[in-house]
């Protein structure tokens, strides 16, 4: 994926126990409560108790969705 495409989304990579992972997940978009996870714009805002930063991650539910930009 081009840098321009990747720059449109706050989070375009992930690790998860379900769904496609690794190469199969590249370029897919996620729906996570309507938020794109970038530290400054989202992660810091939904890490309400600071434990996400302390632990180095947040546990979230996600769903693959159509990016709407094909």
SSE layout and pairing:
Elements lengths: L2 H5 L21 E3 L7 H8 L4 H5 L7 E3 L5
Antiparallel strand pairs: 1-2
Protein name: Barwin domain-containing protein
GO biological process, one term: defense response to bacterium
Organism: Triticum turgidum subsp. durum (Durum wheat)
Percent helix, as a range, is: 25-40%
**Rg over C-alpha atoms, rounded to the nearest angstrom:** 13 Å
Averaged pLDDT = 68
Q: Please give the domain count.
A: 1
Structural description of this entry:
- InterPro entries: Barwin_CS (IPR018226), Barwin_dom (IPR001153), PR4 (IPR044301), RlpA-like_sf (IPR036908).
- Residues 1-69 form the Barwin domain.
- It comes from Triticum turgidum subsp. durum.
- This is Barwin domain-containing protein.
- Pfam families: Barwin.
- The protein has 70 residues and is of the alpha+beta class.
- It has one domain (3-65).
- Helices cover 26% and strands 9% of the residues.
- It is built from 3 helices and 2 strands.
- It has helices at residues 3-7, 39-46, 51-55; strands at residues 29-31, 63-65.
- A two-stranded antiparallel ribbon has the order 1-2.
- The longest helix is centred in the middle third of the chain and has 8 residues, at 39-46.
- The chain is globular, with a radius of gyration of 13 Å.
- The chain starts with a helix and ends in a 5-residue tail after the last strand.
- The model has no long low-confidence stretch (mean pLDDT 68).
Quick gist of this model?
By secondary structure, the protein is α+β, with helices and mostly antiparallel strands. The protein is 26% helix and 9% strand.
């Amino acid at each position: 994926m081009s840098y321009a495409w990747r720059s449109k989304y706050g989070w375009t990579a992930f690790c998860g126990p379900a769904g496609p992972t690794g190469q199969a997940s590249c370029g897919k978009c996620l729906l996570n409560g309507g938020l794109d996870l970038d530290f400054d714009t989202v992660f810091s805002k939904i890490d309400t108790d600071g434990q996400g930063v302390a632990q180095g991650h947040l546990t979230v539910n996600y769903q693959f969705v159509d990016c709407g930009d094909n």
